[in-house]
Design a protein that fits this description.
With 250 residues, the chain is an alpha+beta fold. The protein has one domain. It has helices at residues 26-33, 35-38, 40-54, 102-106, 120-126, 132-136, 151-160, 164-171, 174-177; strands spanning 63-65, 68-70, 72-75, 78-81, 113-114, 129-131, 146-147, 191-192, 199-200, 205-215, 218-225, 231-237, 241-242, 247-248. Strands 5-6-13 form a three-stranded antiparallel β-sheet. The protein has a three-stranded antiparallel β-sheet with strand order 10-11-12. Strands 1-2 form a two-stranded antiparallel ribbon. A hairpin with a 5-residue loop joins strand 11 and strand 12 (231-237).
């Protein structure tokens, strides 16, 4: 994936240090959201995360990239985008093809991006959906000094959020998606399907690429389901379009 020199076949990744997310209100959101669900242990855990964030390494936003301002969030010393990526150009300013018909999408063998149902409201709320070719492109999706995280880095975030059995509930709250009114959870982003070019699963499932290949034509992705609290792993065909979060290099 991004940072690989020779594509999925070689699975070579840069030696990024492991890193993850401080945004306004995150301590309040974690401290206020978890206690009613998980009790006093969650309060202590949220306080611990808050102290780590206060001692963080300057993960403050917004960060402006290609005309969009991104809030940032820090957990356990690791700094992430608090919103899905919306870039329409690679890091070197080359365009990433978009606004493609279903027929063109299904025939792709190179990077592309889409907006769910091509609606501006979806762009603002969910960001863009990128195929795996775009994530793998050596020109890079994320800003300089940032990268698409590897599976191991996602696992570190999941561990910091209490483990995979509960991390999904935390990720579906404001600190993961960015601010929303009244603490309402923002619906999940869905995907663009590889075989038909259709869009599906918005509001039911969320998917995010990793920089780790599963096999030649599939890569690992983190998935969240509206109906449970689990942060799950799946391997997704690289011709599908799903979301991207950027993680700061360390």
């Amino acid at each position: 994936m991004e940072g690989m020199k020779n594509g999925f076949q070689k699975f070579r990744f840069p030696a990024h240090a492991r890193g993850f997310w401080a945004m306004w209100g995150v301590v309040f959101a974690l401290g206020g959201y978890l206690p009613g669900v998980y009790g006093s242990a969650a309060v202590a855990w949220a306080d611990s995360i808050g102290s780590q964030m206060e001692a963080g390494s300057g993960c403050t936003g917004p960060l402006t990239y290609q005309g969009y301002d991104y809030k940032l969030v820090e957990i356990a010393g690791q700094c992430w985008f608090a919103e899905n990526l919306r870039a329409v150009r690679y890091r070197n300013d080359d365009p990433i093809p978009g606004n493609l018909s279903a027929n063109r999408w299904t025939a792709l063998t190179s990077g592309a991006q889409a907006v769910y149902d091509e609606k501006e409201s979806n762009l603002l709320q969910y960001g863009r959906l990128y195929n795996g070719y775009a994530v793998d492109d050596p020109r890079g999706l994320c800003p300089a000094g940032w990268h698409v995280p590897e599976k191991e880095e996602w696992n570190e975030l999941i561990a910091a959020l209490g483990g995979r059995e509960v991390a999904g509930k935390v990720m579906k709250a404001d600190p993961w998606y960015g601010p929303s009114s009244g603490g309402v959870v923002i619906p999940l982003n869905g995907m663009r399907v590889n075989r038909t070019g259709d869009y599906k699963d918005q509001g039911g499932w969320g998917y995010w690429w990793t920089a780790s290949a599963y096999r030649l034509d599939h890569a690992w992705a983190i998935t969240l389901f509206e109906g449970d609290d689990i942060a799950s792993w799946d391997h997704i065909d690289i011709t599908c379009g799903i979301a991207v979060r950027c993680l700061r290099d360390q």
